[in-house]
């Protein structure tokens, strides 16, 4: 029988491995031959393959090409993914990129299956993103996305234009815009070199991923021109200018810096032959070290304090150092008067030295004691207030002579105009002192002059209990002092929930409503001198006068105080408060007992029961002297209570008297 080409090729491979594990290899080869043989006789390849391949691998379909991807042999299954995907194999070998982190070297291809599944049909996506494409952890690639990179979308970096030319021929995917391989990690692979090769190509040596405009890593001390003194505060663009052109750029190399005049113009216009460094340094131009060791202390005006920092030309105009300079008074140089004559009426006629010295204009030497010589002495807390709090710094426009010295001139009205009217008219000193604003000079006598005199318990109430911040009317922190509604319920919640609204609405002779005082007093709530129970529909007579209110006005919903009581729902019938001690024997029907027929509200005993009118057994004769208990002895247990029964009571003589026979 003539062998087919594939059978012959397989036989050659088997022959090459006969010296090894012959029997195992032979059995495996024989199984493959049978499968291949059947594939020619059985029409449907689906009986052998697990399913059709994806579009990318469709050319490897068919039963004769299984070994293109699947390795044969004993042991764990082997996939030949990396034999075709050489670009990924190279990344794994060189430990680059994502695959190098998840696939070990010399892998059998088993790790590939966790993300790439085959035999699922032509349109099945070969990439399984875990947990999803959007939530992919880029740290696993070995290149974390930090700073500005974290805000970029994948397609902004993974494009064909960002893949270097040497990497392109190694990538199997034809459309380079659809691959995530090949990107270099150096900045210039994506970013344009804005410095035109003037500086290092390692952008991270100066920049960070957070902000390209700041260069926290750049150290100018390592450049050819180290920045010292005032040069450290000079903005970069002052020296590194922008070069215009088709593509503008900033110049960093080729800048002249050997002489100061390379950047600075000669302010002396050639008057000095020495170099700038002979008198100046980079710390500050005003700190002059005169050439020729000139000693200003040997003149009639030693340069002391701040004068030592003044530039020479400030006094020696046009570089004429021989012309005498007037210096007997401060105003010889310091003109015009920066205070505009505000101190001209003082004893020294506004001479600067009265408040300042050569060490600086600030702080002023004008003390609190000197302030006492003005029209406004500083006392109390005012003595600790900084000058600038009252004399707002405005340069030459600063006002020192203040005409308005009322509190409102400096202090914002914390009370939002509540005391703007008479009698106070926003005079803070009526209530406060300069020692502290937190202590108030308002006494009970002062409060008597208001529209709400403090009487009774109100006199012992702390101020802040009534005067609280009211954010609904005033800005945060402002306290309310004026109340249009001064009734009790303006501060106190009505515990009776409007049950006495009619009584509270009654008015006094002055037209004000009684409110809670229709029953209570301001001394204590427990005093009810104003409430007269006789004005209600149930007068308290006899023993009822000694009963506590809660004895009839029961708190609702298991409450414990009269706040929960419904005063209007108090019953009028005896049985609503008193238990029927007779078990309904004297009920008039439907459980209604008329207690008043036998008792009154003065006391329950003795009973007022009239045996002649209300009973069917007359007590005439000797029976009138017999105590009730001699006849009414029958006790019955009703619902656990022993009750004396009056009905029935025997009427026969023999029931009470023993027979004489």
Describe this structure in words.
The structure is a single chain. This protein is mainly α. Among the domains are: 5-182, no CATH class; 575-656, no CATH class. 18% of the residues lie in helices and 2% in strands. A hairpin with a 5-residue loop joins strand 3 (242-243) and strand 4 (249-250). Mean pLDDT is 83; it is low at 1-46.
Brief summary of the model shown:
The protein has helices at 5-16, 22-41, 81-84, 86-93, 97-102, 110-113, 154-157, 165-168, 236-239, 312-315, 368-371, 387-390, 407-410, 444-447, 463-466, 488-491, 501-504, 549-552, 574-577, 611-614, 628-631, 653-656; strands at residues 70-71, 78-79, 242-243, 249-250, 635-638, 641-644. 18% of the residues lie in helices and 2% in strands.
Describe the SSE topology:
Blueprint: H1 5-16, H2 22-41, E1 70-71, E2 78-79, H3 81-84, H4 86-93, H5 97-102, H6 110-113, H7 154-157, H8 165-168, H9 236-239, E3 242-243, E4 249-250, H10 312-315, H11 368-371, H12 387-390, H13 407-410, H14 444-447, H15 463-466, H16 488-491, H17 501-504, H18 549-552, H19 574-577, H20 611-614, H21 628-631, E5 635-638, E6 641-644, H22 653-656
Antiparallel strand pairs: 1-2, 3-4, 5-6
């Amino acid at each position: 029988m003539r062998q087919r080409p594939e059978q012959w090729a397989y036989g050659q491979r088997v022959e090459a491995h006969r010296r090894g594990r012959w029997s195992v290899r032979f059995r495996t080869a024989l199984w493959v031959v049978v499968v291949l043989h059947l594939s020619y006789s059985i029409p449907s390849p689906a009986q052998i393959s697990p399913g059709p391949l994806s579009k990318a691998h469709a050319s490897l379909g068919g039963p004769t090409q299984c070994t293109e991807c699947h390795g044969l042999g004993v042991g764990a299954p082997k996939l030949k993914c990396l034999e075709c995907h050489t670009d990924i194999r190279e990344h794994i070998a060189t430990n680059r990129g994502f695959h190098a982190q998840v696939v070990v070297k010399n892998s059998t291809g088993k790790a590939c299956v966790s993300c790439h599944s085959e035999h699922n049909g032509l349109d099945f996506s070969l990439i399984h993103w875990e947990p999803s494409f959007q939530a992919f952890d880029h740290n696993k690639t070995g290149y974390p996305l930090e700073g500005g990179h974290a805000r970029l979308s994948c397609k902004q970096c993974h494009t064909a234009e960002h893949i270097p030319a040497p990497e392109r021929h190694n990538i199997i995917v034809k459309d380079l815009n659809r691959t995530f391989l090949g990107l270099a990690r150096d900045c210039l692979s994506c970013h344009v070199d804005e410095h035109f090769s003037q500086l290092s190509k390692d952008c991270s040596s100066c920049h960070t991923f957070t902000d390209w405009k700041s260069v926290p890593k750049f150290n100018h001390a390592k450049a050819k021109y180290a920045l010292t003194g005032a040069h450290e505060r000079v903005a970069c663009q002052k020296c590194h200018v922008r070069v215009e052109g088709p593509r503008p750029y900033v110049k960093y190399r080729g800048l002249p810096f050997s002489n100061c005049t390379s950047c600075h113009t000669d302010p002396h216009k050639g008057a000095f032959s020495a170099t700038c460094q002979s008198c100046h340094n980079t710390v500050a131009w005003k700190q002059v070290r005169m050439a020729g060791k000139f000693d200003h202390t040997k003149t009639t005006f030693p340069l002391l304090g701040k004068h030592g920092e003044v530039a020479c030309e400030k006094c020696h105009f046009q570089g004429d150092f021989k012309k005498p300079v007037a210096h007997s008074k401060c105003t010889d140089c310091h003109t015009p008067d920066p205070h505009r004559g505000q101190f001209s009426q003082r004893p020294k006629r506004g001479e600067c030295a009265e408040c300042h010295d050569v060490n600086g204009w600030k702080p002023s030497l004008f003390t609190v004691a000197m302030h006492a010589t003005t029209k406004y002495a500083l006392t109390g807390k005012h003595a600790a207030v900084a000058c600038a709090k009252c004399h707002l710094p405005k340069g030459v426009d600063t006002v020192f002579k203040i005409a308005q010295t009322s509190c409102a001139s400096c202090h914002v009205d914390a009370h939002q105009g509540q005391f703007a009217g008479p009698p106070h008219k926003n005079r803070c000193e009526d209530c406060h002192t300069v020692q502290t604003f937190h202590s108030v000079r308002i006494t009970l006598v002062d409060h008597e002059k208001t529209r709400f005199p403090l009487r009774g318990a109100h006199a012992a109430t702390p101020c802040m209990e009534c005067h609280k911040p009211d954010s609904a009317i005033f800005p945060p922190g402002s306290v309310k002092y004026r109340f249009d509604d001064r009734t009790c319920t303006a501060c106190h919640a009505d515990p009776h929930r409007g049950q006495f609204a009619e009584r509270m609405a009654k008015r006094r002779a002055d037209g004000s409503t009684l409110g809670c005082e229709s029953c209570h007093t301001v001394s204590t709530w427990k005093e009810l001198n104003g409430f007269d129970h006789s004005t209600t529909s149930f007068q308290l007579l006899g023993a009822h006068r000694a009963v506590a209110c809660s004895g009839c006005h029961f708190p609702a919903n298991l409450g414990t105080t009269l706040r929960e009581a419904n005063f209007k729902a108090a019953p009028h019938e005896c049985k609503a408060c008193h238990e029927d001690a007779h078990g309904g024997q004297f009920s008039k029907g439907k459980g209604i007992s008329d207690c008043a027929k036998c008792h009154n509200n003065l006391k329950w005993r003795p009973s007022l029961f009239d045996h002649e009118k209300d009973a069917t057994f007359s007590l005439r004769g000797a029976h009138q002297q017999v105590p009730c208990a001699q006849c009414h002895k029958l006790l019955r247990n009703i619902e656990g209570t022993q009750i004396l029964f009056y009905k029935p009571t025997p009427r026969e003589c023999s029931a009470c008297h023993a027979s004489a026979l």
